[in-house]
Design goal:
The protein is α+β, with helices and mostly antiparallel strands and about 425 residues long. The chain has 14 helices and 23 strands. The strands form six sheets. Strands 21-22-1-23 form a four-stranded mixed beta sheet. Strands 2-14-16-15 form a four-stranded mixed beta sheet. The longest helix is centred in the middle third of the chain and has 13 residues. The chain binds uridine-diphosphate-2(N-acetylglucosaminyl) butyric acid (EPU).
Amino acid sequence: MIKGGVPLRGEVTISGAKNAVLPIMAATLLTDEPCVIRRVPKLSDVEFMGQILTSLGARVGFDGDRLRVQAKKIQGVGDYDLIRKMRGSICIMGPLLGRLRKATVSLPGGCIIGARPIDLHLKGFEALGAKISIEGGYVHAKARRLAGADLFLGGRAGCTVLGTANVMMAAVLAEGVTIIESAACEPEVVDLANFLNSMGARVQGAGSPTMTITGVKKLHGAEHEVIPDRIEAATYAIAAAATNGEVTLLGARADHLHAVLDKLREAGVKVERNGSALTVRRNGRLKPVDITTLPYAGFPTDVQAQMMVLMALTQGISIITERIFEARFMHVSELARLGADIAIEGPSAIVKGGKPLSGAPVMASDLRASAALVIAGLAAHGTTEVKRVYHLDRGYENIDGKLRQLGARIQRAEES
Ligand code: EPU
């Protein structure tokens, strides 16, 4: 329940990145030695990945934002229902294949943001020598021997983040050299590569479209601190601008946020960097900006919904084009309930901004759409009720607590 109209003010600490920690947790399966991961965000997706690792035989212990995993003896068959629930769990496949030379996981279904195939992941595993079959809803990958290969991982929408992570995690224990062309360049892929290298892997070129992985025989335990969540940082930055407030993001990495900060500045938002803190402030009237989502370093699809809210509050017309996930406009019909004027034309949303938003009951559909609805509720007059907030808890640590700390009037309520 959100009572809108209060400008957000103050400081908020950015948590560890969900999309970095999930593959890093999966990577702990590559060694029988203990691994320690720090700055682990308290999220339901992380808890869930912990359950998956446990179901494979690993010992998993959380201690505040520290996580210890030891996968001494593991088995290669993932629990059907556990894995099916969370798309990110597909990234256990690479480590299982790398370490055990076999992996069986349930096929992740489509999801609310569009079809999410894994053909590129499987293409990569096959190039390394795995035989793939699909039976009874499971994908089976098996290899007598994994051998380095040259492979191209580009797809219809560009590169694949988890596909790159998955193939990289299988290749670190393959024989010989693997070259991935059209690799994803996201900071989360770089964070994973850094963790793998600290375990003794030999990964070069992470963060560029060509990655070279020289296989090693064995990996050892390691300790790693996860990068701050650039999507969480962007979400609070947009919330500050949308509510006409001023928020300092502690620990945000400006170097991971170029595209978002560039668009915010183009729209007239003031962003100042002070060491590892970023202060975001609305600077008078905003201007509409056009946005196209692209793989990194382009504008992230995971910030498209939140930016749409800012544009709905900005006088004028902006065009927001989604190039990564074709159906990621579920928030549009919910934003209309608050009075936003947005029309969808193919892959683009045409936002006629500037109409004041007024609170309404709305339904969250996916993680980032939920964040957008919260921002809209914070900026709207009156009360907004966002249902199905469990979507938010998948990817935003303590979002209601952090927003209250910034002055927002937001409370959790049991659904009646
Ligand atoms: N694709 C294929 N074949 C594949 C894999 C992907 O065609 O085998 C297509 C997808 O359908 C999509 C595009 O490639 O059109 C990009 O998908 P990608 O594989 O990069 O997405 P992902 O790795 O499954 C991660 C994040 C998403 C984020 C995307 C894009 C995690 C756990 N998930 O998904 O995060 O939107 O990259 O940046 O890392 C979120 O946090 O809310 C979220 C959805």
